[in-house]
TrEMBL record:
Origin: domain of life: Bacteria
Domain spans labelled SnoaL-like: 16-102
Protein name: Nuclear transport factor 2 family protein
Organism expressing this protein natively: Lysobacter firmicutimachus
Residues passing through the membrane, by range: none
Length: 108
């Protein structure tokens, strides 16, 4: 089985999905995250959302593909957890800036 190699901030993001405090090391201070029709701006808002989502859904993401598109890194991951429709494949659209995540949009 091939191992997927992710850029460092993206690998750190997936490693931190159940430890929101670790997310501070993945995002820029003014990063924007869009998920499930909501937009979270700034690391504190992103950490609060991720803490709530982790407690509510206990989701685990396993990235399996990455490609570049128009300056973005597109990662597809199998996501399973305590939510309707689990498991599901989600797309994560990352824009990196100076070694950190400046924006992230998660879609089905």
């Amino acid at each position: 089985m091939d191992t997927l190699t992710l850029p460092e901030p993206i690998a750190a993001y997936f490693a931190a999905e159940h430890t929101p405090e670790a997310l501070a090391h993945c995002f820029t201070a003014q990063a924007v995250m869009k998920d499930d029709g909501h937009t979270y701006t700034g690391i504190d808002a992103i950490k609060a959302f991720m803490a709530e989502a982790s407690a509510k859904y206990s989701a685990t993401s396993v990235p399996f593909a990455i490609e570049r598109e128009d300056g973005f890194q597109l990662v597809r991951a199998n996501v399973s957890g305590n939510f309707p429709g689990s498991p599901i494949v989600l797309s994560y659209r990352f824009r990196l800036e100076r070694g950190l995540i400046a924006s992230l949009e998660i879609t089905a």
